[in-house]
C-alpha cells in the first residue's frame, strides 16, 4: 500500500504481535518508505475518530493462538 501511494499519503500499520512490527519496520527502512507509521496493540482500540479512507485487515487464522 505504501508503495502504491508512491511514498506519499499516510499508512498506519498496526499489529498485535510486537515481533511482526519489528520485522515490518526493518522492511520499511530497507525500502526507504517514510509514509508508514507503525503501532503495536489491539486494532480494535484505534479511535474511530481517526478517519481512514481505506482499511485493509489481515485477520488471524482460526487455528492461530494469540
Your description of this structure?
It is globular, with a radius of gyration of 13 Å. The longest helix is centred in the middle third of the chain and has 14 residues, at 18-31. α1 (18-31) links the parallel β1 (11-15) and β2 (36-40). The mean pLDDT is 87. 21% of the residues lie in helices and 15% in strands. It contains one helix and two strands, in the order βαβ. It is of the alpha+beta class.
Helix content: 10-25%
Overall body shape: globular
Biggest sheet details = 2 strands, parallel
Q: How many E strands?
A: 2
Helix and strand arrangement:
Elements: E1 11-15, H1 18-31, E2 36-40
Parallel strand pairs: 1-2
Supply database-style keywords:
66 residues; alpha+beta; two-stranded parallel ribbon; 1 helix
The gist of it:
With 66 residues, this protein is α+β, with helices and mostly antiparallel strands. Helix content is 21%, strand content 15%.
